[in-house]
Amino acid sequence: MPKLRVATVWFSGCSGCHMSFLDLDERLLEFAERAELVFSPIVDIKEFPENVDVVLIEGAVGNTEHLRMLLEIRKKAKILVALGDCAVTGNVPSLRNPLPREEVLRTVYAKEDPPGLEEGKVPKFLPQALPLHAVVPVDYFLPGCPPPADRIWKFLRPVLLGQKPELSGPDLKFG
């Protein structure tokens, strides 16, 4: 059986979901036997590849670069998974939704309007930080802040074995 082509992506979030993925510990050995990590912030690959079997996306869609990439990913991935509460609901990144973009940029990056904050140097904020399903169809939701490694494995292991994952009850707990 060929290895599953898996990708992980990090949008507006804290990287806690990727840390939980790494907390799979020795289960990463079984993952590596059955899957090839073809794109991730934990590997140095710049372009999202074609024909990805499963992509786990952490974080909300917060800017134009996230939006562009999410649309590209949805076209290239068979299974798209919202990983963590930010991807599932918008969670903490969506707290900035009522704030004006320019005010946020000035507060975070500079005291006055510096050159370089135009589109291209810093991706333009979307009017709202959005959960993934507000932009594209999502196949599975793995809530949690972050989702525990056991929940991630309960989803991944059946997929690695060519089976459909079953998530219910405590597997769908937020926070």
Q: Kindly state the mean pLDDT as a whole number?
A: 90
CATH architecture: 3-Layer(aba) Sandwich
Query: Could you describe the largest sheet, including whether it forms a barrel?
Result: 5 strands, parallel
Distance between the termini: 36 Å
Describe the overall structure.
The strands form two sheets. Strands 2-1-3-5-7 form a five-stranded parallel sheet. The radius of gyration is 17 Å and the shape is globular. Helices cover about 30% and strands about 20% of the residues. The chain has about 180 residues and is α/β, with parallel strands linked by helices.
List strands and helices in order, with pairings.
Blueprint: E1 4-10, H1 16-22, H2 27-34, E2 35-39, E3 52-58, E4 61-63, H3 64-76, E5 77-83, H4 85-89, H5 101-109, E6 125-130, E7 140-142, H6 149-160
Parallel strand pairs: 1-2, 1-3, 3-5, 5-7
Antiparallel strand pairs: 4-6
